[in-house]
Amino acid sequence: MNRRSFLQHSAAVAGAMCLDLPAFAEKVATFGQPRLKMGIISDIHIRTKENLPILQHTFEYFRDNGVDGVIIAGDLADWSLESQLEWVAQTWYKVFPKDKAPDGRHVEKVFVYGNHDIKTPEMILKKYDVTKEKAEKEAIGPRRAEIWKKLFKEKWAPIYIKDIKGYKFIGAHFANWQNIPGLEEFFAAHEKDLPKVKPFFYVQHMHPKDTCSAPWTWGQDDGTTTKLFGNYPNLVTFTGHSHTSLTDERTIWQGKFTSVGTASLSYIFPFGGRENTHPCGSKEKEPSQMKDFKGKDGKHGQLMTVYDDCITLQRHEFVYDQDLADNWIIPLPLTGEAPLAFEPRAKAAKAPQFAPGDKVTLTRAEGKDRYGKKEKQITVHFPTVLRKRTGVRAFDYEVQAEITDVDHTKIVCTKRVFSYGFYLAESQDEKEAICVFAQSELPKNRRLRFIVRPVECFGKKGDPIYSEWLSADSMV
């Protein structure tokens, strides 16, 4: 396929990303026979038996959709205890006894350890409320190979390669926060096994630096993998750790290879910089009038289907059992062209817009900020911007306070805020959104109003809607 044909093909296939579900189903029907199906999850963080029903349900969803294998990109056992990993294994074999589906087909495990899985007894005792006896007896870190073989019935290796229906999968277990020791040597040793055109797949826990969700997300490696993978345009990587939502279009990236974030089956962690979030790892006390976001019902995964001409990634959540957004489509062959790179998608993105008649309303009351301090507050209320209403769903919202100052107006405070259900399917995001301001954040004796703009994930802003003006007297 020459460059011109490839670009035409890529545009045709990638265009299906914007089709509604019936049109998408019609498009998929033209892709031909699926060659491979894989379930993809990460960061399941099994802590107690109460975590197992959602894991079992997810495995059953993959089983019922005919997968040939399942990827788990790390952080299986939340406290790095053998008993927690054993619950994962028991749940797997309950759904896939002897690694088989009910029709007898083999279902391969492509699991890797994450940072939560390989702690020493000392690390466990420092962080978790367990007895010294339990930590010393059950810590996975010192016995990672022994425990893996015992529970998953296969030999453990720091890096491994598997063949699933003619497609190669490389798994690399977490070793440190910077990189995967020996990875370059492993690729060199298996060069003859790696296809030159056909896609192959790689799984590790941390994101390759400056790929999916970058540069904003936490949990990237030191870039060693990014440099190495640049030599393999037909490589697709699946990585976790950041818990980034699959409703964010930046969770998939293309450059010299393709990088896909795997979200989390435990909870979703959003970007900081919003009135209802905080930056991960920040030790500073973030000023905020709103409670910190908790995405406990955000349990995301993907169903990958490989065809001759493309790879589709169905984005699904397992609490309400709904698809989160359009399937991502990766055109094949992967030759180094990057139709899913951030820059072309950002350029092509459409700004979300409020529907005609949408309004901003205000309520005022004494409340408390995130830390319990009493404040006189103004709450800005506005509808969510959903695709089914106006064609493009908002990722978040910019909310500004504007005052009159002699003969002109000016912005005195700007905030960004997520809606309640931004990380879920649209039907779970219909509740009005709010943004809270302390009256102490705003000038006194000024006529004031609030402006709200919907924003898509690459940053394009829709047209504003406005509240009524508050009188200067009311701001005393």
What's this model, at a glance?
The protein is α+β, with helices and mostly antiparallel strands and 476 residues long.
Task: Provide key terms for this protein.
11 helices, 2 domains, alpha+beta, disordered N terminus, 476 residues, Purple Acid Phosphatase, chain A, domain 2, 20% helix, Immunoglobulin-like, six-stranded mixed beta sheet, globular
Specify the biggest β-sheet: 7 strands, mixed
Q: Give me the CATH architecture of the largest domain, please.
A: 4-Layer Sandwich
Q: Overall mean pLDDT score?
A: 93
Shape: globular
The CATH topology name of the largest domain reads Purple Acid Phosphatase, chain A, domain 2
CATH superfamily of the largest domain: Metallo-dependent phosphatases
* Ends distance: 70 Å
Please count the helical segments: 11
The chain-level structural class is alpha+beta
Number of domains: 2
Taking Cα atoms only, what radius of gyration do you get, to the nearest Å? 24 Å
Strand content: 25-35%
Number of strands: 20
Report on this model:
There is one protein chain. By secondary structure, the chain is α+β, with helices and mostly antiparallel strands. It has 2 domains: 3-264 and 299-348, Purple Acid Phosphatase, chain A, domain 2 (4-Layer Sandwich), CATH 3.60.21.10; 361-475, Immunoglobulin-like. 20% of the residues lie in helices and 25% in strands. It is built from 11 helices and 20 strands. The chain has helices at residues 3-14, 21-28, 52-64, 82-95, 121-127, 132-138, 144-152, 183-189, 224-229, 342-348, 387-390, and strands spanning 36-41, 69-73, 108-112, 159-164, 167-172, 200-204, 235-239, 252-254, 258-261, 300-306, 310-317, 322-323, 328-331, 361-368, 374-382, 396-405, 408-417, 433-438, 448-455, 465-466. Strands 1, 2, 3, 10, 11, 12 and 13 form a 7-stranded mixed sheet that branches. Strands 4-5-6-7-9-8 form a 6-stranded mixed sheet, with no helix packed on it. The longest helix has 14 residues, at 82-95. The protein is globular, with a radius of gyration of 24 Å. Residues 1-19 have low confidence and may be disordered.
